[in-house]
Specification:
Elements (H helix, E strand, L loop, with lengths): L1 E2 L5 E4 L2 E4 L5 H17 L1 H6 L18 H4 L26 H12 L5 H10 L6 H5 L9 H4 L8 E2 L13 E2 L9 H4 L1 E2 L5 E5 L5 H6 L2 H6 L1 H4 L8 E5 L2 H4 L1 E2 L16 E2 L9 H5 L8 H8 L4 E2 L13 E2 L6 H7 L1 E4 L13 E4 L12 H11 L4 H4 L17 H7 L1 H7 L2 H8 L21 H14 L18 H12 L14 E3 H4 L23 H4 L7 E3 L9 E3 L10 E3 L27 H16 L17 E6 L16 E7 L5 H5 L5 H20 L4 H9 L2 H6 L20 H11 L3
Antiparallel strand pairs: 1-2, 2-3, 4-5, 6-7, 7-8, 9-10, 11-12, 13-14, 15-18, 16-17, 19-20
Helix pairs in contact: 1-27, 4-20, 21-22, 21-30, 27-28
């Protein structure tokens, strides 16, 4: 929102002011006029937290990555051939290629330690992975409970500070041999997070470094010039390694290697506390992160699409079967520069909306970019976290030429896919005590199969009738009945047809389906197919209106800057182990318990609410602020004349945002200046009245409600109910529902 331009002028978004025109009166007038606009978009949200991450954004030269700048080649980043993680994933025997794939998945950061280090500096310490790993911030014995991250076996909590005064985990056992720390860093004690020496930590930085002040003194750790002794690299395993359902740890805080799965998708992670560990209560961003369900990640937060849409982290199963049923899609442009791409190719869909649609290799390498690989280029293409300027596509040909880390990752993609093809379902019957949760009544199971064949299999099966048989016809239903009743129906069945369906049919929350980053000309343009880009927008939708329940919100996607509005069919593989349900983990309770009993408890609650929607919270599932809050802007990010308005802690506070406000009413506002001109005037008037008359929280709420129509008009996704949709099977008789549930447990 606010960009300082060197020279004689300061630019506040579209407003240009000369320095000589800034005085006390103009400052107050500016704040009153612009407060509302700051308050509305993720710009305001993120300025108070991650801020602008302005590094690497204004370079005139063609950006290259650190490795290329240092004269390195892909040969300097060899893959690991030793079976480092042999006990994981059920102890499966892997080929050399599959071993290298798993090692890459669990260890390789692709050079993103550069990104995360600068993120810590330029967010004034709010976004600090090194601090997150310190036992003083989150003790090892409580990490899984609080953060949902997985402690690395062979470590213990720090008993004393290290040479830099940090209380990082101590190795109780040596890490398996064969890991080159120059390439992969050294272990941090938390799986997926690797420590690299900071090349900028020279003698001068060492003299200034103070481990105690780093933890306890905001004036010290908020210094954007602070040089940390380590940089933290993030591997894919950080969000995907989780307890193994068929052999869960006795103590989730102290798992053994055999208790862990590499690619199940961590449904326990608390993304906000992990990646923004210093966010404090009282700020709007605290409220936004506190509402985010465990086990979800908002993958469009940095390259923002102005839609708050955290999603369940994908488990990876039966890739070979997904490839078998993949349907061809058309590729154009920079996509074709990725090795193996063709103008038309079969595509398994990865993201919830099916936007990752150029194949497994392209989908995998895009994730590495999205967590910081080649950020030297990526961050020049979008107004990170703020999104006030149009995005530009991340061009695959450019990355292949200018990033050694991209090429080194590209060389690993085949091995990662080979490893994925070995990942099989987890069966409840194979888990400790699991058989006791499955009915012994074979008649109930048989009826459950029949119900599944009649009501579910047309979408939730990768085994489908021949092309000449309509799956919804009488002949198709007969085919499914015979298929489901066969003894091998569940064998290598992905339990999804991997097709995209419109929101008008699925009726779940729209947020993820409206994400725009894969549209033509946007940041992930090269990673989505032409077929995806040409999907027709869904028809007009009606959303629940929390401000007037008698007047639904009408929303026409074709008239708004949103994606077309589709979701791919999710897989039901190992459904017993993966609750809560839906793409946003909002159907069912979160138990935080990875034991078999804990997973079944979560499953039972979720499946009851799935089939009996009257048991859902429904409108109570709307994410709302739990406390009165405000947007906090660091004074360092505003011109000096405005800094006098900061409080004693160095923040300019904009608010109050009343308790109970729908979070996405604010978080989903698109910064379209045509709409916001009207909106900002109304918000500014309300906030001015709140401040000058010292209104109570209730009175403030009444004033701000007057701006709701304008907020809704500017909102990219005014779909507030989170646990709605997927009403298929809800009209079945109760006995059939119970039978179906018993059968689902066998997946």
């Amino acid at each position: 929102m606010l960009e300082i331009v060197k020279g004689k002028r300061l630019e506040f978004s579209c407003l240009t002011v000369r320095k000589r025109d800034i005085n006390d009166a103009s400052v107050k007038a500016f704040l009153q006029a612009k407060r509302g606009l700051l308050c509305l978009s993720r710009l305001g949200v993120c300025l108070g937290t991650f801020l602008s991450l302005t590094f690497s954004g204004c370079e005139k030269n063609e950006p290259i990555d650190e490795a290329k700048a240092a004269g390195k080649t892909t040969a300097d980043f060899p893959q690991i051939t030793a079976d480092i993680f042999k006990p994981m994933d059920g102890g499966i025997n892997l080929s050399p290629e599959e071993i290298m794939g798993r090692n890459t998945w669990n260890l390789w950061s692709g050079g993103n330690q550069h990104f995360w280090n600068h993120a810590a500096q330029d967010s004034y310490g709010l976004m600090d992975l090194l601090k997150m790993l310190d036992n003083r911030k989150f003790p090892r014995g409580e990490r899984f409970k609080i953060l949902g991250v997985v402690n690395e076996p062979g470590f213990r909590a720090a008993t004393k500070p290290d040479e830099f005064g940090l209380w990082l985990d101590e190795q109780a056992e040596p890490e398996p041999a064969g890991i080159d720390e120059i390439v992969y860093g050294k272990p941090s004690g938390v799986l997926g997070y690797r420590l690299f020496p900071n090349p900028d930590f020279n003698e001068e930085a060492r003299k200034k470094w103070d481990g105690d002040r780093f933890m306890n003194d905001p004036t010290y750790y908020n210094d954007h010039k602070l040089v940390r002794p380590y940089r933290v690299g993030v591997a894919c395993g950080a969000c995907h390694i989780a307890p193994y359902p068929d052999n869960p740890p006795a103590d989730p805080e102290n798992p053994r290697w055999e208790n862990l799965a590499s690619a199940i998708g961590n449904q326990y992670i608390n993304e906000g506390k992990v990646f923004a560990c210093n966010v404090e209560k009282g700020g709007f961003f605290y409220e936004m992160l506190a509402a985010q369900p465990r086990g979800t990640s908002d993958t469009s937060r940095i390259a923002t699409d102005h839609i708050n849409n955290p999603n369940a982290i994908n488990p990876i199963f039966l890739l070979a079967e997904r490839e078998r049923i993949a349907v061809p899609e058309k590729m154009v442009g920079g996509t074709l520069a990725l090795p193996g791409e063709k103008e038309e190719r079969p595509v398994p869909h990865v993201l919830k909306d099916g936007a990752d649609s150029i194949g497994v290799a392209g989908a995998t390498i895009r994730v590495y970019v999205n967590i910081g690989m080649f950020s030297e280029y990526w961050l020049t293409l979008h107004n990170r976290l703020i999104g006030l300027t149009p995005q530009k596509p991340f061009e695959i040909p450019y990355a292949r030429e200018h990033s050694v880390f991209w090429r080194a990752t590209e060389e690993r993609l085949g091995n990662i896919a080979a490893f994925f093809r070995r990942l099989k379902p987890f069966h409840l019957a194979d888990a400790p005590g699991g058989q006791a949760y499955i009915t012994a009544d074979s008649a109930v199971i048989e009826r459950g199969k029949e119900v599944f064949a009649e009501s579910c299999a047309a979408c939730h099966s990768s085994k489908q009738p021949p092309p000449n048989i309509d799956s919804h016809s009488g002949e198709g239903k007969a085919w499914f009945h015979a298929a489901v009743m066969a003894s091998d129906f569940l064998e290598n069945n992905f339990l999804s047809n991997d097709k995209r369906y419109p929101l008008t049919k699925i009726e779940t929350n729209s947020a993820r389906a409206f994400g725009t980053n894969a549209k033509a000309g946007h940041v992930w343009d090269n990673f989505s197919s032409l077929t995806y880009k040409e999907l027709s927008p869904v028809d007009e939708l009606e959303f629940f209106n929390p401000f007037d329940e008698t007047r639904p919100i009408k929303f026409k996607p074709k008239d708004r800057n949103v994606a077309p509005g589709y979701y791919r069919t999710p897989s039901l593989v190992s459904l017993w182990s993966s609750a809560p349900f839906l793409h946003n983990n909002m159907l069912g309770k979160f138990t935080g318990d990875p034991s078999v009993a804990g997973r079944i408890d979560a499953f039972n609650d979720a499946v009851e609410k799935l089939l009996w929607p009257e048991k859902r919270p429904n409108k109570a599932s709307i994410w709302r602020t739990q406390n009165e809050s405000a947007l906090h802007l660091r004074k360092e990010f505003v011109p000096k004349p405005l800094r006098a308005l900061a409080d004693k802690n160095g923040y300019i506070n904009i608010g109050p945002i009343p308790k109970g406000a729908p979070i996405n009413l604010i978080a989903n506002v698109e910064p379209d200046f045509g709409q916001l001109v009207v909106l900002q005037a109304k918000i500014a008037k309300a906030l001015l009245k709140i401040h000058t008359q010292n209104l109570s929280s209730e009175q403030a709420t009444d004033e701000l409600i007057k701006a709701v129509p304008e907020l809704l008009a500017a909102n990219k996704c005014p779909d507030f109910v989170e646990d709605k949709g997927h009403y298929f099977g809800t009209d079945l008789p109760d006995n059939d529902k119970r039978a179906l549930i018993e059968y689902l447990k066998t997946f």
